[in-house]
Amino acid sequence: MGKTAFILGMRDRFFDALFAIARKDPNVVIISADNGAPSLDKFAFELKNQFYTVGIAEQHMIGMAAGMATEGKKVYTYAIAPFVTTRVHEQNKLDLCAMNLPVVNLGVGAGYAYDIMGPSHHTVEDLSIMRVLPNLTIFSPADGSCAEKMAEFSYRLPGPQYIRFDRAGLPEIYDTNALDVARGFTELVKGRDLCIVATGIFVHQAIKVAKNLRERKGLDVGVVDLFRIKPLPTRELLETLAPYRALVTYEEHLIAGGMGSALLEMVSDHGAYRPTLRIGQEDRFVFENGGREVIWKKYGLDAIAVSARILGWLPKADLNLR
Amino acid sequence: MNEIFLRDKASWVRRTVLQMATRAQSGHVSTAFSQTELLVALYYGGILRFDPKQKDWDGRDRFILSKGQGGIGLYPILADLGYFPLEELEIFTEEKSILGVHADWHIPGIEVITGSLGHGLPIAVGKAEALRSQAKDPLVFCLLGDAELYEGSNWEAAIFASHLQLSNLVCIVDRNGQGVLGKTDEIDSSRDGPRLNPVDAKFASFGFEVRELDGHSFPEIFRALADIRERRGNSKPLLLLANTAKGKGLQLMENQRMWHYRVPQGDDLRSCWDNLENPRQ
Fold it and tell me: Which chain B residue's Cα is nearest to A87?
């Protein structure tokens, strides 16, 4: 095995695409709460009238973004993910969502991306608290191509949005040209028995889990990358999930209220019941060091543990798929 | 400035507020009374630029009522000026009314939603910067309650307002010296404080030009705002520290505790009407 090739971060793919948009439209502005990215520097130098750094002052950042948006600006705010979500929940609720303003909060470091930085930087409750906000659209891309396409998409979408990026570059899943961002999800692997619905970095893990279960147990396992968490692409997603006998949701996020909860609510509300296993972090904070994969392993979130958990669950769900 | 006209308007606003609160059995009377002269001067004294017939006119000054609980004191003025019918005031907070306790952007003449404190100033800074960056003339006014200044978001915004040298931003602090429970600086029990003073020095050290005035005196308000359109060469945002009294004009409430969100009843209500009909000069 050779050295892992450098993969440009999701946020950088996004910012590069946004830069091209911002050059043409002077009403596009970016406000950073003292957070950088390699691709952000060209905004600061080449589009300096469209770039603001407000210091470590996120409450002000969101309010200022709202104020600018009421005056015709399309505003992107940027910080580490907890600081554009949990830190500023009320500003998001009132200043952005209650006024339905065109502001896009960009958060970097979804899930345990900031692995050794502790609970202050872990972002495993953002989906839960953000998806209760009316008018808000939430995106959770799993690769750079998806993130890149979201730049143009978010620019055209009028209301408030939250986009959660992983910190590092993740291997490519999509061909940028072929990806349909408006659809909100992609069935990456078609199956029949069981569908794993995943988001963000765990889409990559889900593909491994599906391969495991297919190769070792002969299960026909599908994988869906759900990259629009709110509003859920309900009709199309229910259609896609209809042939499957069981569902597994898989997210690097607390299981309380996250993507899995959203999916269960959708399935329940539409009477599309079937056995569903939610995999995510249990009701706990994580203080362990050692890195992201150490956390996954310890809490049963890596591909091997998840494969085993699914196999152990199938009989409990009274499913005899083979 | 026609001071008699303005005093009559202020008196009408206070009477209307008390009627609205009595009818609805809701509304922040005492805070509406501390801001009355400030709002009357802004809206009737030729300070604010606005056009009730075109509420979204781009040339309007942006007025943000950061102390959103003061909505009851602004609605009569907006109705009187023609933003919406006066009849709306009679059904304040009722099912068919557009007027709730806290100011909200669905109401003609109201720019943004407020009610949770510490939101107005960051929004005002964003508006002022967006206007400045587009070389637009309007000014942005932001009326804050003094106890609202305990919210840290104001100070985040204050740092940035002076960093951007937003001379098109006019902040007004309704310095009535009280929060809900206690007094901000006249500390005589554990209900009071923490101390806010020195508010003037705090804002000055954050880079504002600070002007202190009697917030119930029309001549002082106009003096403090006389040059606001000519301040563009100035590099500082402006802060008016308007000393006021919560419940101004009502013996029952003036600077008294516990009237933040209470509607007077019976003899108390009669004494309020007596004060309003026979004001002390």
Answer: B153
CB-CB under 8 Å, B157 with A64: yes
What pLDDT does A321 receive? 66
Look up the pTM and report it. Answer: 0.96
| Whether the Cβ atoms of residue B10 and residue B40 lie closer than 8 Å to each other | yes
Phi-psi region of B112 (alpha: psi -120 to 50; beta: other; left: phi over 0): beta
Who among B122, B124, B130 is closest to A59 (CB)? B122
Q: What is the pLDDT of residue B281?
A: 57
Dist. CA A146–CA A149, nearest whole Å: 5
Q: Is the model's pLDDT at A11 over the cut of 90?
A: yes
Q: pLDDT for A164-179, tens place per residue?
A: 999 988 999 998 888 9
Residue B119 to residue A94, Cβ atoms within 8 A: yes
Residues in chain B where the model's pLDDT stays below 50: none
How many CB atoms lie under 10 A from the CB of residue A48? Answer: 9
Q: Where are the beta strands (DSSP E) in chain A?
A: 28-32, 51-53, 74-80, 103-108, 137-139, 161-165, 185-189, 194-198, 221-226, 228-230, 246-254, 276-281
A-to-B residue pairs, Cβ atoms closer than 8 angstroms: 92
Q: Which residues of A touch B153 (CB under 8 A)?
A: 59-60, 63, 91
At A138-167, the pLDDT tens digits run 999 999 999 999 999 999 999 999 999 999
Closest CA to B239 of B213, B270, B275: B213
User: What's the token pair of residue B54?
Assistant: 């075109």
Report the pLDDT value the prediction gives residue A2, as an integer from 0 to 100: 40
Check whether A4 has a pLDDT greater than 60.
no
How deeply is B185 buried, as exposed, middle or buried, from its count of CB atoms within 10 A (0-12, 13-18, 19+)? middle
